[in-house]
């Protein structure tokens, strides 16, 4: 089960007026636990105004850089992001969960691939890690980045991207797309959507010649770009995406308030007895099927279950159904095979049978 470790903040660097990047000192004994793959994220935890706040942030450094660094953009009303931008400083200690996530493909120095990334705002964070890793570890691969922002001033890692362009002039192409500042060409003015993506495909790259696509930004951008790429006959398997929900927004999905139908019996259940197994310890919790998620019910019952985003994205709350059934409201993290094997995101799951056993140890 995922655990938090105390890590000291090495430095806090201002990237734009509303974004900082935060690096951590990782002690020798935790270096294996905190080794990471390009594109992964870590979950941070701090007590802010008496509240236990947890948020996941993508790593912007490349594994070979020997540094664990994330970028944190301040969002309106965001507890953690405001704290990180306004108060956090070198020497502070945060609770940090080891890196997680699947937003990557295996790198190989013999690869001669073309990667295309679409990022918007702080969606650049994991893309930076991927882009740097591809350019340094795959000398025969090319990378094309489309990066959407409001204006020039809001471009995160602007200078780092320029430096990369200069260092890899033959293998890296970068196109900035601005929504509130006309860069002088209509093609790059506006938001990254289906129409823009279609024009980029026509004018700037051949979708048939691209090996991997990486998409990171708000859900709308990911959907629109995915639609267009699929319309261009791009194989779904080549499209990798990392959704960022604004972690301080409440879960947008309303879970059904009606009683849920059990898959196994065909009967509706009003409530269920849920056995939760964590670190080999069993707890029994009664949950109304239109009430709390399994995760929330377990937390209210005082069970120390792991979680971070509560938004179906980070997978920290993953459990496996050993008995009974449950239904997920949303799932952006689990693969189809995992769902078939009985894995659930407990933050999204409601029991749909009278008795359910969920293990966090599987
Ligand atoms: S807590 Fe992040 S997916 Fe459930």
UniProtKB/TrEMBL annotation:
GO terms for biological process: phenylacetate catabolic process. Its cofactor is FAD. Gene3D superfamilies: 3.10.20.30, Nucleotide-binding domain of ferredoxin-NADP reductase (FNR) module, Translation factors. Keywords: 2Fe-2S, FAD, Flavoprotein, Iron, Iron-sulfur, Metal-binding, Oxidoreductase. GO terms for molecular function: 2 iron, 2 sulfur cluster binding; flavin adenine dinucleotide binding; metal ion binding; oxidoreductase activity. Residues 2-106 form the FAD-binding FR-type domain. PROSITE patterns: 2FE2S_FER_2, FAD_FR. Pfam families: FAD_binding_6 (PF00970), Fer2 (PF00111), NAD_binding_1 (PF00175). It comes from the Bacteria. This is Phenylacetate-CoA oxygenase/reductase subunit PaaK. The gene is paaK.
